[in-house]
Structure formats: C-alpha cells, structure tokens
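2024-03-11 09:14:02 INFO receiving multi-entity request
2024-03-11 09:14:02 INFO entity count = two
2024-03-11 09:14:03 INFO echoing inputs for audit
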Amino acid sequence: MPELSYREAVRDALSQAMRNDEDVFIMGEDIAEMGGSMGVTQGMLEEFGPDRVRNTPISEMAIVGSGIGAAMQGMRPVVEVMYEDFLTISMEQIVNQAAKHRYMSGGQLKVPLTIRTQGGAGWSPGAQHAQQVEAWFVGVPGLKVVFASTPSDVRGLLWSAIYDDNPVIFFEHRTLYGLKEEVPEEIEPIPIGQARVHREGEDVTVVATGRLVHEALAAAEDAEQQGVSVEVVDPRTLQPLDEDAIVASVKRTNRCVVAHEAVTRMGFGAEVAAVVQHQAFDWLDAPVERVGAKFTPLPFAPVMEDYVVPHSKDVLEAIMATVGRDGGS
Amino acid sequence: MANEVKLPRLGQGMESGTIVKWLKAEGDEVEKGEPLYELDTDKVTQEVEAEASGILLKITVAEGEADVGTTIAVIGEQGEDVSAIAGATVQRVAEVAQEEGSAGPAREPEPEIGREVSAAEQVAEARQIERGNGAGARIKASPLARRIARERGIELGSLRGTGPEGRVVAEDVERAAASSAPPTPTTATTTTPAPTGDVERIPLTSLRRTIARRLTEAWQAPAFQIAMSADMTRAQDLHARLADGIRPGSAETRPTITDILTKACAAALMRHRAVNVLWAEDAIELHPSANVGIAVAIEAGLVVPVIHQAERLSIAELAAARVDIVTRARDNKLRQEDLDGGTFTISNLGMFGVEQFVAVLNPPQAAILAVGAIESKVVPTDTGFEARPLMTLTLTCDHRSLDGATAADFLRTVKAFLEEPGLML
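2024-03-11 09:21:47 INFO inference complete, emitting structure
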C-alpha cells in the first residue's frame, strides 16, 4: 500500500476526481501557479490547465457564490477558502444560499459543492488565522460537515464529499498536512456519517476530532501505563454524526471524554456530550469531561498559543478525572 | 521533587494487590520504565514498571497486601527528605503488624471482625453524608451506579462512594452486591487459637481468594450435569497420525488428545451457538467465537487461560497455543488478556486416571466440560463383544442460560466429532 502525506492525500483525491469526471474543477485564491498557501494543489495547474484549476480574486463571497452557481448548473466544484477564519466573509453564501436551495426549490435544485478549508493552531499565526470554527456549521440544516484527521480518511472522505449532492464544508487541519499513513491503492470512498475507532479500550471513550485525535491517542498510551484502557473514536464527519458508534462505545466503557481544538464553550463536544447523556444516561459512571481551547482569542506568542489550545496531557487529565483519579504528571 | 509510587489499578474491579518482591533496593537508581516490583493481583503476578526516574529513596510497603492507591515507595533525588510522605504509610503498616503480633506482611483481620467494622464504618459514613447534605438530601451517585443498584435491590444510601466528591460509582455498588452474599461459616480455629506446631496456617494468596470467591458464586447457580461416553478409537488414530506426521527435530508441537478435544468442542460450539453464551444477569450474551478456556493446575492453584477463536485454529495451531498458555501459566507469566473473554471451559483430569468427575461452573460461562481418562471397556458389537477405548464427558450447565435438551444436543455433537473426527470438517 502506498504511503501518502495528508497533503498528498487531499491532492490525490482532487486529481483522481478530476481525471474521472469532467464536471469536477477547483477554484480558490492562489491555488494555480502557487499551488495553494499550503501547497495542496501544487502541480495541478500543469495537469488540468487554467480552466479547471482557477485562481480567484480575494473575495470569499465570490468564490463560494460562484461555486454554488456552477454546482446548481450541474458541475461538482471544489472551492478552497484559504483559512477557515475567512469563512465569515462567505457566510451568507454558505448559510443562506448553499444550505437552502435544495429545500426551498422543493428538490428541483441541488448544490453538489465542496468547500475545502484549513486552520488550526501550532504555527502561531495569530487570532485571525488559526481558529477552529467547524461547530458553527454543524448548526445549519442543509450542510454536511467533515473534519478528517488522517491521510486515508481525508482521501476517502474528500472523494465522498465531491460526489455528495449536497454542500459539504470540508475542514483540514494545518498541522496534519505532513502526517503520513498507508492508504489503499485505489481510493476507497468513506461514507459520510461513519466514525472510525482508532483504538479499542474498556474504561473510557474519548471522542476526538482533528488534531486532537492524535493527542487523544498519545494520552491513551499514557493512560494505559497507569492501568486505564482508553477507546479513541473519531466521528470524522460532524454532520451527519455517527451517534450509534459513539453511544455503543460509551455503553461499553461507561465513561466519556470529548476533545477538540476549538473552544470548549459551544464546541462540537457539547453536542456529543448531549447525545451521550441522553442516549447512554443509565450507562454513565462519571460526568462527560470536555477538552478544548480556553475561551480567549488565540494569542500570537507561541508560548501563549501553546497554553491556550489543548494537548495530550489535557486529554489525559480528563480521562483520569472520569475514573476518579488525578492525572498528575 | 519526590514521586510517590502508588499501587496501580491494573484492571476494573481491582481493589488491592499483594507485593511479592521488590526488584530494586532502597538507594538503587531506577529508570522510568524499568521493572520495579512484582505484584500479585486477583489473577496474575506481574512486574510493574517505574513511572519516574530517580533514586528509590524509600520502600514503604516491603511485602504483602495493599489497597489500590496506597503509597508503596518513593522515588526522588539523592538525599531528599521523604519522611513526611513515607511516614503515614509506615505507621499504618506498623500498627497492623503490632495487632497481629508479628512483623510479617499486613493481612486482613479475621473475617468476622472485619465485616462488623466495615458495616459500622459504612453506616457512620452514610450518616455523615446525610448530615453533610441536609436531611433527605439527594445521594450523589452516577447514573450507572443507580441503575445497577435498582436492578440488584441495593439501597444507595447504605453505600460509601469512592468516586470524585464521594460519588457512588458502579464499582461501589458491585462491591456491596458481592459482600452481601451469604457468609461462609467460620470454623472453630478462628476463635480458639490453634496449638502451635500442629496446624500450619497458610494465608490466602489473592489467587486463592479469587478461586474461593468465584467458585462460591458459581455454586449458587442452578447447575445440572449430563454425561456421555465417547469411543475414542478414531480420535486416537488421528492423534497417532498427527504425532507421526511431525518430522524428527522439527519445532512443531506434538498434539495431544486435549487438542483434538478442544477442536471438537470449538467446532461443536459453532454449531450449537446457544451453548457458547455468557450469563449477563439481565441478558444472555451469544458469542460469535469459541473462546475455550483450559483449566490448568499450577503450584499456586488453578487458572483458566483462554484460547481465543479456537474454531479458527487447526489442531496443530491449537497444540501450539495450548503449550504457550500452559507454559506461561506455570511460569506465572500470564497476562490479563490470556484470562479474559472465555466462553467455554474444558477441565481434563484424564491424565490422573480420573474416570469421570463433575466440574464446577466457571461463571458467567454457561457450560464446562469435565473430561475423564480413556479406558478400555468391553462393549457389545454386531458380532459379539469388543474392547474399545471410551472416555466419559460430563458437561456441567448453568440452567439459567442453558436447558437440558440444548446441552444434550451439543454434547452429542462433541461425542460424534470425537468418534468420527472427519465430521468436524
């Protein structure tokens, strides 16, 4: 099986879809000659030409809006919003247009649009270039939301997003682009709405997304040393959510931790905690613990940024709290 | 900064462990990850690694039983003063030793007294909790603990919570459920001291205690037995052929009759899924794989390591798996996962010449097969009489999860497989 980085896996899914299907094209700021600010689309201009690898003006409203138009006309556009912080500028197009047309037209229109974007702390890009805003979109009926944490997941899920007939907001995490993993020879589409159990365990379930999947796996190793067996579940798609997988896991372990890099307040973990307490109430042996960023804009100073966002030690502490022990390191 | 070494909880339900020996002495340098001491738990003896590097400044529990979370040693920097940390534990151990009039390891007090004390303590603490929260205050308990308490009819207010902020958690309820089981009668020796020199008192190891507890529990299940004899002529032929097939000097394991038996049971369990079940109090769990436990006598008692997914293994693979777990059982090298997950058990006393016997259930498994020796018996044939090698199989079944006809059907299949091994294919 070939080994791909997360970056190469995204590029591979895009390129294969474009080879496979004339209707697929990509569009965004600096994605052509420059190959995107994260280098994801490097080399694609040479292969597919300027009609299918399109540079856009600096207007997220226009990027998403024209993507919606093309999608309604039968194309399968994949547009890139350079930083997820900039999704704010295209909010009208995403929330009031992309998410609503299929519903308001009584199914006569559909919007098979994929909006790729990336973000995350770790490089100290400051308060306006490192946020994790995925939870905002989970609250909008009509959108699907994907957040992949490994190369094989990002490849299989991006493929499914492109071929989904509904708008999909596809989040990538900046610090994961260099991460490598063996991936299947042929792209195996991963159904949207299916969680992945990264590690089985008996005492505590950690439901983690994005970078925190890897922090949770590290915390699980540490917990194991202390005799606590941890199951790590990555929902991979936040909307729709694989509630069955999460609830089944918690019913076995009786304890749950939710973990993401976004702020804890109104974070995606809050929704998971609500699902768990409702569907697995009589199986819970401890309150659901939440791990997320402190409630503050992200600082620019690296040491401060590091302090604000969660790491494996924070996940470990939460795990230990659910089993009634302090995680003292 | 000194690090306290605390007795770890190595599995759910573990409340205490017995320190067998220290692999490092006070004053030794230890590296994080290095084996530090040997710990005897309910099920296994294992080496525990140091969680910090430094000098082993103090061993506060040299040997014997300690509760989970007890500080048993301190690791720190050379010359660090650890008396404050170590003091409390040392004192506790010393007090217990004094009570018993010996400097030996701390042991539980006699059962009778122990029960009174703990009941009194529980009541006192329950009252305290009530007082603390005001009259009629809600008891802090996890939803899971509440559900289990409701199912087993246990009063939550009578329990002492060990979770954060004194919350009653599932483990507390389960512990209370286990301790409310009928007490075992005490013998006169517990009240009248035995004359010295005549009776040797062997303190229970935690393995022995687990055997006692589990078998006492098992005895309460409504069990029944059925027995059949199998003609082992063909199984013995197969055994001989398999043994002959091994090239001299090869590393392959010689299969035994036990391995053929394991194969037959695993194949039969797959055809009679209703026997491959666990009793889960509120449900019967039907398991997809035959995880066959083999009862192994070891010096310290009895353990039942499990061959997982036995139905997928060939006889040669089963032989290798058996040799592996039996060797490790005898060397005290079993891991927790070797003991977990069993769905059926085989207990073979044939090698001791036992003709037939009745095994005690291994709950929550629904059935255990007791296997006797192969004996030459005269049996009638079409033309007269013939001596045939017969083996008696006695199946003990838990009637809560298994009925007689189902059990008989299963045992008939095992017998058929042994009498004509080709049918297993």
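2024-03-11 09:21:48 INFO post-check: Chain A has two domains: 3-182, 196-322.
2024-03-11 09:21:48 INFO post-check: The longest strand of chain A covers residues 256-263.
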